[in-house]
Every structure is written in structure tokens, then in C-alpha cells.
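--- STAGE predict ---
source: upstream dedup step, 1 unique chain passed
mode: sequence only
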Amino acid sequence: MNVHDKAPAREIRQFPFETDAGIAARARLGLVVLGSDHTIEHEFRLILAETPGVAVYHARIANDPEVTPETLRAMEKGIAPTADILLPGMPFDAIGYGCTSASMVIGRDRIGELLRQARPEAAPTNPVSAAFAAFAALGAKRIAILTPYSDVVNEGIRSYFEGGGFEVPVMGSFKEPNDNIVACISPKSIAAAAVSLAAEGGVDAVFVSCTSVRLVEAVADLEKRTGLPVTSSNHAIAWHMLRLAGIDDRLPQFGRLFTLGLHGA
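--- STAGE serialize ---
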């Protein structure tokens, strides 16, 4: 036979197969992540490594790394289309939008509407709604807030929390508006600032705002050092999404909040 002659095509064998529930056997979570965010996916992975059968799927939304009220508001039009591209044809148990300051500028209710447009079957949340649910579970009304933001964004956050029924007796900030720099603020610096705010007294909990800030691995230690519950944007939204999805696993290694259900039980 000529070496250039092709052998006759053989039939491609078809094998039988069975299916299981996949890696999201217990719950499927969807998350809209800022294009400039370095941290939220990493911190979700740390937590979900302890919750087998729960998976999170991310889609990135275009944004400006400079955080101003105008750049935050500009994301509104992209939230529903970004959520819509997550696993086409597959249902989600919970879905979140991962920006704390934009959730205040655009509004928690509006964020929920936009997420439900794309994923009507999923319980929606965002870092602010999650933080408020966390404070309710913890029984906290007086909150020390640490942020990386500029003063114009900080004042908006203070007003929003106070409008939500909380007191903000002490507040501190790194005053760095660029997400790419915020993501590189060291855990040591974040911990020192959180401890300093807690030491001023008169508060029930410490909240560290911004999904680019790294805190999840330090929460339990900070709670020992301050004697107060501590949470952050990523810490709170991960807990809230798990609870909204019906996942009640208690994970004390991530601090007091992860030992509680939605209403503190």
C-alpha cells in the first residue's frame, strides 16, 4: 500500500455514561466580580474549601480602578448582562454582586433587581446587604468601619450605614482610591488599623469595607485580639450567600459570624 494512502475511517465508539450532581452538589453560587478586584475570588476559595459540594462561578464586570461615585454608578448598566453569562442554562441558589461602595451608590434594592433580571431563581445579595444581615445575626448596632476609600466615598458610607439604622462611632481609612493599590495593602496594616479602631471602644463589631481588602484569614485572630466580632465585605457576602443557599455549615475557624445562621441562631 502506498504510504500516502489513508486507512479507511474507523467508527468512533460511543460509551455509556452516568451523571452525578457535579461539583455543586449542595449549592451553586454566582458572583459578579469587578474587573479590578484582586481578592474576592481568593477569599471565597479559602472558605469554600471547607464546604464540600458548594461551588462558586465568577463573571467579571468592566469598571474603573479609580473609586469615585461616578465610576461606581457607571457599573449599573453592566450588572444584569454580566450575571447573565454565568453558566447559561444552569440555575443558581444565590447570586452576588461584589462591590461594597457601588452597592450603596446604586442602591441595595436596585442591585437586587438587576441580579434578579438575569437570575430570577437565585437569592440576590451584595456586600452591604450581607453586612447588614451579619450585624443582625451578631446583634451589633454600633459599628467601627475601616475602609480604603477617599473622603467623598467614606462620607457616603457613613451616611448609608446610619440610614440603615446603625451607629458609626469610629471610622478610619487608608484613603487610597486605586483598587490595584488597595489589593496590596498588607494584612499587617489592615489588622493594625482594625485593632486601633476597636480600641477606641463603644462599638459592637468591626467592619472592614471593600472586596479588594484581604481579611478572611485574619478574622479569628482579630476577634481574639479585640474581643469583638469582625467581618469584611468578602467575609460577610460569602457567609450570606452560603446561608441564602441553605448551607448552614458552622466554620469557627473563620470567626464568630460563621458559627451563626441568618438570624443569629
